[in-house]
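User: structure tokens for this one?
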Amino acid sequence: MEQFKLRRIWEDGLEMEVELTLKGKWCAVTVDEYVIGADIESLVSTLRAFNARNGKSPKSWALDVPLVHASLMFALANARGTVRVDVESEQMRGDGGDMKATFSFETTMGQVDELQRQLSGFLARETDWVESLRPE
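Assistant:
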């Protein structure tokens, strides 16, 4: 089971519509929102910085667009390379369907490396789909 999925739905020269799904053991959150390439590049930079320090320094990434907030915090859970990912997500649509979720899941340093690689391919338009961060 992949705990991080990102799918490009639509794109023009300014922005893209993406569907981001984050899954924990007991819940899943899907956000369908318009973002710019810099939002995804920021996540790649966060992962690159986390990997460069071998996870010894926690790193955070946040997506803040008008109606959606999503953040991921990457931190080592133990000395064997297990990574804990803390997720916060909030959607404020104002239509009675507002949502707020906080949960976490675990993966490995190798999976974080793989996510960074896949997201770089996504930004280069080599793929429209990213599936990563499997529990091991």
